[in-house]
Amino acid sequence: MKTAQDFILEIPVLKPNDQITKARQILRDDRFREVYVVDAKKNLLGYIDITDGLRVTATKSNVTIEGFIKEAPMVHPADSIETAARAMKSYRTDSAAVVDPEPRVSGGILLSDIFPVIISRNELHGTVGARMSSTVVAVAPDDEIQKVLSLIVESGFSAFPVLKKKRLVGIISRRDLISSRRARAVIAEHARTSVEGVMTTDVVTIGPGEPVSAAAELLVKHDVSRLPVLDGDRLVGIIDRHDVLVALA
Length: 249
Description:
By secondary structure, the protein is α/β, with parallel strands linked by helices. The protein has two domains: 4-121, Roll (CBS-domain); 128-246, Roll (CBS-domain), CATH 3.10.580.10. It contains ten helices and ten strands. The longest helix is centred in the middle third of the chain and has 11 residues, at 81-91.
């Protein structure tokens, strides 16, 4: 049976006195949505994520990451990937630090890497409607990027469906904001630019009556972390990888 050791990756780490701009650079360029923070002996102190990277909007800043560190999920190399998934589900993260008993960080494991294996060897129960989050915060195509930034920081949500006349026309995520050079410039300069210019328009959706297993298959097939749930043309919820993990037998 595969364990965390089989999926461990080398991960970038930060020190508490590193600047937030350094963290933002790593989060923009790497697969990780979280970056782990260690002390001088590489013992795990916690993590910061993309939302934290967006809190300081200036392109140059002396603000350090020390005030943003949160408690991190951690697993040991011999732990099962189900154990790792439960840790990520508990912390609502997309990765977990792999540590030795110190706990000194030896690498990381990504939910996106273990998710296909977990759903292939575990039975999933329930419908999308029963597992989805029905609390959906949406934005409009002509809303400004600055509004999305505020929503990410205030709500804790990582992505927002884009509705035009109550119809889904796209989705915009914190990854879009931190990865897009145009969006980063807009945020830094407090400029007026709309969601429409940055959002993703090719959106994969699912219906509330579909089984959770169908949602899991779509998440894997399209390599996305969440799906808007549509009842006809009406947006009724969002289901993500963490919601699917709740449905494990």
